[in-house]
Amino acid sequence: MRHGLQLSSVSLRRGTAEILKDVTTELAPGQIVGLIGPNGAGKSTLLNAIVGLTACRGEIRWKAKRPNLESVGYMPQNCQVRAQLSVLETVLLGSPSRLGWMVPTQIVADACAVLARFGLADLCHRGMATLSGGQQQMVLLAQRLMRRPDLLLLDEATSALDIRHQMQVFAILRDYVAETGALVLVAIHDLNLASNASDKLMLLKAGRLSACGPVDEVITPEVIENAYGINAEFITSPAGRRCVLPIQAHHGHS
């Protein structure tokens, strides 16, 4: 799959701990892939490895080339803006064009259009420091989309958002994938959000790729019990998506 994301035996050891263990898979463009797994499974480390922020063994290729921060859109966990910037200035920083003191009118219009897409147009002149955590998350995601990357990596990009805004963001990502043919790989803690928002799921457990495939092949009683150590009931939503209803956690599961 020369035009997709290829992970071949991606491994990382810190001291005696294996953080990633022979992660191998191929992901095609034109889809949203949810990256799930319990705390400490290696989700953030894998995303960092893909963009080259964390050295690892193995091979990582996007469209047959080694991806890096310049070639992909990446939004890490707990991403914040500490500089005294307005919302509009923050989004403009995501422009692929080199900006000077005078920003072309078209680029400003593009930034305003991205903000409008997220329902943030009325905040464009607000300072980032005055926004809530959820508002900042949406602005920073708008900044990433301003670059129109064909590979977008998101680490818990909706963790500070309420349910309505989570649904809104994933609807925007769905439209973005349809428009551009991009691959979106997003780490998600909420299994039901992952099930409803993703075309495919990757499940990490203790650094290994425990499951990878269509949602209904990953969200199963056996797979979820093994990965998370819980008993759960499973129902199918009217939209045909599988939902997880946790019942009991196993004692001593790791």
Output the CATH class name of the largest domain. Alpha Beta
DSSP strand (E) fraction? Answer: 25-35%
For the report, how would you describe the main beta sheet?
6 strands, mixed
C-alpha termini separation: 35 Å
Overall structural class, as computed from helix and strand content, comes to alpha/beta
Count of DSSP-assigned helices: 8
- What form results from the Cα inertia axes? globular
The H/E string reads EEEHEEHHHEHEHEEHHEE
Radius of gyration: 19 Å
CATH topology assignment of the largest domain: Rossmann fold
Q: Residue ranges: pLDDT <50 for 5 or more in a row?
A: none
CATH architecture descriptor of the largest domain: 3-Layer(aba) Sandwich
What is the residue-mean pLDDT, rounded to a whole number?
92
What is the H level of CATH, i.e. the homologous superfamily of the largest domain? Answer: P-loop containing nucleotide triphosphate hydrolases
Major β-sheet strand ordering? 5-6-7-3-8-9
The counted number of beta strands is: 11
Give the helix proportion (percent range). 25-40%
Total domain modules: 2
Descriptive account of the structure:
With 254 residues, this protein is α/β, with parallel strands linked by helices. The protein has a six-stranded mixed β-sheet, with helices on both faces. Helix 3 crosses helix 4. It is globular and about 55 Å long. The mean pLDDT is 92.
TL;DR?
By secondary structure, the chain is α/β, with parallel strands linked by helices. Helices cover 31% and strands 29% of the residues. The chain is built from 8 helices and 11 strands.
